[in-house]
Specification:
Blueprint: H1 6-9, H2 13-19, E1 24-28, E2 34-46, E3 73-78, E4 82-88, E5 96-107, H3 109-116, H4 128-135, E6 151-154, E7 164-167, E8 181-184
Antiparallel strand pairs: 1-2, 1-6, 2-5, 2-8, 3-4, 4-5, 7-8
Helix pairs in contact: 3-4
């Protein structure tokens, strides 16, 4: 499949969170083997007006990549137990990122099962910590470009609007009412900590946000 180029990431964060659904994340390991997952769930985070975002108080050494050019990975350690992966968005100098929250495993499944110590394909990548473990993403990938030979996104048909669900984000304690989670309604690979029912039909598309 065709790789997504830099133009794809020149998209406002809230819209990017939706457009990422259905795209395929690819990671090339040191051995040369590939692991792939189709994105089925995301969450948007913005440096302005969003207290759940790591960048809302400004730039730090931890979050500096969020202020860089879009199309790079922001990896961080969460709750002392797992790494989470985000795709940097917004123009350089403005903080924003989209959390990769769940994927459908596509390739390298046997290696994912070994890492996750489970055979159940539905739960291999059904959460942000699970998918990084399945793919082998970690601190070495902090700031990694999605335009090189290590990791990238492949294009794939978009998800029809009627199949895209929206809800508040999961597992946060601030800015909890913002409905910035997007997901493929009905996917068996979603995280299981919140209802995944499809929303009522929205009157306006995200381009008007």
């Amino acid at each position: 499949m065709k790789r997504l180029d830099a133009d794809f990431y020149q998209t406002p964060t809230l819209l990017l969170a939706e457009r990422l659904l259905g795209k395929v994340f690819v990671l090339r390991e040191a051995s040369g083997r590939l692991t792939k997952g189709r994105i089925v769930e995301t969450e948007a985070y913005l440096g302005v007006g969003d207290e759940a975002c790591h960048a809302w108080r400004g730039m730090t050494e931890r979050n500096r990549v969020m202020f860089g050019p879009p199309g790079h990975l922001y990896i961080y350690f969460s709750y002392g137990c797992h790494y989470l992966a985000n795709i940097v968005s917004e123009p350089e100098g403005v903080a924003g990122a989209v959390l990769l929250r769940a994927m459908e495993p596509l390739e390298g499944i046997e290696w994912m099962q070994e890492r996750r110590k489970t055979k159940d394909e539905r739960t291999l990548m059904s959460g942000p910590g699970k998918l990084t473990q399945a793919l082998g993403l970690g601190p070495a990938h902090y700031g990694e470009s999605l335009f090189g030979d290590l990791c990238w996104l492949e294009d794939a048909p978009g998800i029809p609007p009627e199949l895209i669900g929206a809800s508040p984000r999961i597992g946060i304690s601030r800015s909890v009412s913002l409905p910035w989670r997007r997901f493929v309604a009905g996917s068996p690979h979603l995280s299981k900590t919140q209802s995944t029912a499809a929303p009522k039909k929205r009157k306006k598309r995200l381009e008007s946000s």
